[in-house]
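call fold(seq) -> tokens
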Amino acid sequence: MVDESIKCPMTRNWDPYDPEFRENPFPTYKEFRQKCPVGHAETYDGFWAVSRYEDVFNVARDSENYTSRQGISLVPLPTDGRALPMESDPPEHHALRMILMGEFTPNAVAAREGMVRKTAQSLIESFCEKGEADLSEDYSKLLPTAIVCALLGIKELDPKFQTWAEEIIYDPNDEERVRAASQAIYDFFKEMLPKQKKNPGDDFMGILIKAEVDGKPLDDQMILDFCWFLLIAGLDNTAFTIRNLFLQMDQNAWLKEELINHPEKIPDAIEETLRLYSPVWGITRTVAKDVELNGEKIPEGDRVLMLFASADRDEEEFPEPDKFILGRSPNRHMAFGMGRHRCLGAHLARLEIRVAVEEILKHLPDYKVTEEVGWNEMGPLPVSFEPRTLDFGDNS
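ret:
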């Protein structure tokens, strides 16, 4: 039990998954930073909410005092395995991460730009003559789905992967539905695995099958855990940011015009969108031994929730934190995490987002969002534009 005197009243009953809170969490985050930067909550079996940039930064980089091995989500992931390599600690974490590190270097990612661009163009070609589309369902979701499926050796592009990912991420309290979605992903890869083992290729599953750690191959459960997490991480976060940047440009005409006229500024717009609307709003760690954080004594075994979305709007780190500033510098946001667990696929995500935006602004720059939609979801993004015929030929 935590001593009553160290519980901030404002965090005690806080539910970070409450739909009303999720609609606009930023005023609450600001209040946390100002009045209760490390506050204890009694919901979800108890945890500590860490909201200031400096504190989140320090926790994220301290794998000695804060372990990932016991889970990264307030609501335990409904699997019999682990989300690898995230739910591991050094030295195991480094060994597991290195298996796929070569596939995510800047050079390796750059070599895939042609594939990403061809996919984006093919998707645009499928709806450009209609004069309307859903830039979420028809584009923002399908682009990363196609790429991650190709990388994992999945031959068919199927929207069900994105549906499963969203069910796991956006409504973790619906345990039955989440477990069913999670099991569906595992079952899919279980069916793939024996075929891949007979003739492992150069895709991610093939690399995992051929990999060794300390001279031993990964067992089937570890391979499945890896594939499960790669699919989840590779789909939703990237799609979320693509959708949000399209929404930002629609709501801020100056931004769209600036990026049309100066596409070289698209990477800056991506970084600011990632900062303002972090696709991963928070991840948990478990305290490995008694620690003190911003004056609060936290006992071993307690969980700490690093609020990346709050840290990325900390006034002490980001002047005018709630404003979209194109070319903000420095912009050391934590949308991809921090420290050893920084997102392995960050370079790939940035490439996919950049290409997605470049292709729409080049071919459908007049798109307009036709309904009022929210930012903090992966729902529809209906748009209209002047119908046109686009022939990308060989998409080169």
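Residues 4-378 form a domain with the Cytochrome p450 fold (CATH 1.10.630.10).
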